[in-house]
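Field reference: sequence -> structure
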Amino acid sequence: MSNLQQLRHFAALAEHGNFARAAEAVHLSQPALSRSIQGLEASLDCRLLDRHSRGISLTVHGQLVLEHAQRLLAGSHALKNAVSQLGNLEAGELLLGSGPYPAARLIPQAIGKLASAYPRVRIQLLIDNWLGLRRRLLNDDLELFVADIRDLEDDPLLHIEALSVHRGVICCRPDHPLSRKKSLSIEELLAYPLAATHLPQQISQELNSLSGKEQPISIQCDNFMVLKALVAQSDVLTMALWDVVAEDVAAGRLSVLPLANGMFQQTSAYGLVSRAGHTLSPAAQILRQHVLEDERTS
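Structure field:
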């Protein structure tokens, strides 16, 4: 029967693709690493590697074992982390994910409060769209994330708590040619490049229908801070949510474009997402509470 140590050695070898580098990474000699891999192959009764002059490559069995090994190792890490956090949160880490818009306002506020109260908790934040975050959550790479939930709501593997709704806007730099208009048509908007994060299917379909274009988004980027910087120094427009641009608009760094009545009236659909049936670690529970409190007072 294989053990976690052998699986850890195998995962390191798959990552580095070379016995020498993998052995160094796991603090073993090459012969010891080789014996560990051979023991794993013997216990599973299959060949996991093809050895060649350039290093190693995984067999079909090896690819399958690697997928399971990564999940088991992540689960083992999560268990140790949850146990270490019991008590006064003097240790452990929080693996957290966020969509681009919550990462621009909501998540930094909640992380700041958690870090101030529990400075010894190590926090790792991954920013991605909801599809990537879901995949990482189910692979145990994340414990909790905040993102758009429109395409996740019927997923039985997830536990979802909906958050406050914010209106959608289209922004530009204050001296943009369109900022002087009183009411804009879709044709006037599409005369300029439009930038956005990865859009939920519902919004994407509405925008495609409204514009008559299969790909109306000229620039896609899941880092909203990059999009804001791009808009501030060019004629590019960006789709955004009011809560993440309100301060920039008030400070005169961005302007909200006046759309024609009824045109593209979208809102946010943020949610807190974790695995169904899984208990959150103490750190994740505290961060969740901060997010809910900040949303109620925003």
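Note: The CA atoms of residues 180 and 244 lie 23 Å apart.
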